[in-house]
Amino acid sequence: MGRTVRYIPAKVQQVLVLNASYEPLNVCSLRRAHVLVFKGKAEVVEELDRPLRSATDTFQWPHVIRLVHYVRVPRMVQRKISRRALFARDNWRCVYCGTATGRLTLDHVIPRSKGGDSTWENVVTSCAPCNLRKGNRLPHEVHMELSASPRPPAPVLFIRLATPKIPQRWEQYLAPYATPTRAAAAA
Hints:
About 20% of the residues lie in helices and about 25% in strands. It is of the alpha+beta class. The strands form two sheets. A four-stranded mixed beta sheet has the order 2-1-4-3, with helices on both faces. The chain has a two-stranded antiparallel sheet with strand order 5-6.
């Protein structure tokens, strides 16, 4: 009754997983990271200052781990398209006018009625007025231009989406693999 036990919320207990080449792969739970390290499949690259305790032992609290053996990541397999990932890829801005205010929607550059697919290369973020103006036409038909050509996002984007707040110590591992945002590309 006298001692208060405090638990760290599960969302804070995320660990960055790097390939053997230090390429960011994904984010996993603290438990999964500890199991990978304990089985010798990964090593701790960065740890937090607090210990991870069990009933009988004390371990490092992993913050970033690196797989011991290289895992080949198939680049041909594209992730499924999602609204959240699309908005993040386009930096939460309309690709036609650049506004970040107002209601954002998705727009097919080549409308589906004209044979356009729902792929990363054909779907962009658009504000409601630009989407209404473009309608069922191609951008050049209504004198609109894309700020950048749409393309599949970098894998690091999905790590950023999976983690509400990226810890400062992860940035050195994520930054080399990030793609420039559309705003930076347009400038």
